[in-house]
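Session log. Operator J.P. requested a structure for one protein chain; no other inputs attached. Running the standard single-chain path with token output.
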Amino acid sequence: MNRSKFVGLGCVLLGVVALGVVLWMNQKPDDSLANSQELSTPPADPTPAPASSTPANELALREAALEGLVQEIQRLLSLGTQANVADEEGRTALMLAAFNGHTSSVQMLIDAGAAVNPQDQIGRTALVYAASGPNTEVVQLLLKHKANPNVIDKAEEWTALMFAAAEGHAQVVSLLLEHGADVTLKDIDGETAYDFALSKGHSDVAKILTDASKP
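Structure written below.
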């Protein structure tokens, strides 16, 4: 299996985010109007405006997650950037961080409220992308936070277990099995994770799957 790569997320973020640009009218009021405004205008509220998420910051967050830039992720989250906003392909910052095995970034995003089980447009989750890594620590972290090991993608009807088996990631396969991964699930061609491991010559993984199939 050839590991697919995300497209278009390595681009440099263009443009500058404008924060709080205020336009003042260059008009001088007469004295009476000015005095009236001074009397009627309440004092300014010193409380800062609540942080909010912007498309530019959401894009920057996904790019930072893909690269594992923890400080940048922290900065963007502190601005109120939403962790669960996906790109046009349905991929979230968590999926991108998981794909490249950035454990600290994954933890930070989860702590900020990133959901672990959303699927992108082809039905893959952060766990599926991590399992194809091998990103053992990320897989373990996602499973700890209740990631579903039996989500089936929409492209080939693969599961995280199938991806890990095809790549020969024995430790990831074992972790998935410990957390309830179903060895009997089949892809669009009727093949199981065991078939994938066997066809790729991963005899150690095939044995793990065989043992897991025994009653």
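Operator note: Residues 1-50 have pLDDT under 50 and may be disordered.
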